Amino acid sequence: MQITFLGHACFELSDGVHTLLVDPYLTGNALAAKTAEEVNPNFIFVTHAHGDHIGDTVSIAKRTGAVVYAVVELADGLLAGQGIKAARGNIGGRQATPFGSVKYLPAAHGSGVPGGLACGYLFEIGGKKIYHAGDTGLIADFSLLREEKLDAALLPIGDFYTMGPEDAARAAGMIGAELSIPMHYDTFPVIRQDPERFRALAAARGCKAAVLRPGESIRL
Ligand code: NI
Ligand code: MN
Asked: CB-side exposure of 55: number of CA atoms within 13 Å?
């Protein structure tokens, strides 16, 4: 399993056969490691409809034929009629996928579409469990993830719109993943953060964290 950080909340997950892309905000992101033309996912996951998450989803899906996963209101409201394949789901639901499975998890954040909920995703792929939190504040629900024995948790640390480093470190402690990776920082002035501070705060809680620069990968 390879996890590649492409900047902001965008990650590429690959088991060598399937490539998943989460929240592909590439165009307009000065820190993005790839352009929207350089990614070739089989599956795209959108955590919510804010522009810094839905990003280039439609153009990438049109070019690659990737299936786009989103909560029902986002799939029906924004993705329907765009000539792309959308897969719907909702909070708490797990569904089998060609690469393994995905479960839609709660996130405390606006969805960007009427009636919809922002979400995080728990992926089972390549024998690993990887959690992408999306945009969220600190929620007690994180502690429910401990039983999942996650291999990796991708957590926002930017503050202002989501958890900051302190709350993200608390989240890492509640989740208890083997590895936590910070995201959603530095893209805009209001979310400028030192990810090493998050790493140190997580370490103080006994949690290992790895800081990836945009374009860097880690193997699980
Ligand atoms: Ni957002
Ligand atoms: Mn965001």
From this structure: 28
Q: How far does the centroid of ligand 2 lie from the alpha carbon of residue 191, in Å?
A: 10
pLDDT digits (tens, 9 = 90+) for 141-181: 999 999 999 999 999 999 999 999 999 999 999 999 999 99
Ligand nearest, relative to CA of residue 191:
2
Ligand 1 midpoint to CA 82 (Å): 22
72-111 pLDDT, tens per residue? Answer: 999 999 999 999 999 999 999 999 999 999 999 999 999 9
Q: Ligand 1 centroid vs 113 CA: distance in angstroms?
A: 11
Nearest ligand atom owner, CA of 184 = 2
Please name which ligand lies nearest the alpha carbon of 111. Answer: 1
CATH assignment of 2-219?
Answer: 3.60.15.10
Residue-wise DSSP of 6-57 = EETTEEEEE-SS-EEEES---TT-TT-SS-TTS---SEEE-S-SSHHHHTTH
Tell me the per-residue pLDDT of 2-30, one tens digit each, with 9 for 90 and over. Answer: 999 999 999 999 999 999 999 999 999 99
User: Ligand 2 mean position to 51 CA, how many Å?
Assistant: 8
Would the CA dihedral through 93, 210, 6, 135 be positive or negative?
A: positive
123 and 100 Cβ atoms separated by less than 8 Å: yes
Q: Where are the domains of the chain?
A: 2-219
Report how far ligand 2's centroid is from the alpha carbon of 218 (Å): 23
